[in-house]
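QA checklist item 7 of 12: single-chain prediction sanity check.
[x] sequence parsed
[x] length recorded as 70
[x] structure emitted
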Amino acid sequence: MNTIPIEFSIGGVYMPPLLMASVLGVVSALMLSRLLNSYRLSKYFFYPPLVFVALSIIFTMIYGVSIVPF
């Protein structure tokens, strides 16, 4: 039987599980991009803001697969 993603409640307001995955994905991408900047590895990227967007999408998909079961 397929499991339906369960919404979670914050102060009585129901939030979708993908919102939690996207927030975690953006925070993880922000931490990784700051780590890359501190080690000066971001100079090897052509356009670092685009790398941040790509990392946000990748981390959101990883968290989305792990939080929202299929």
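[x] summary fact logged: Strands lie at 8-10, 13-15.
[ ] second reviewer sign-off
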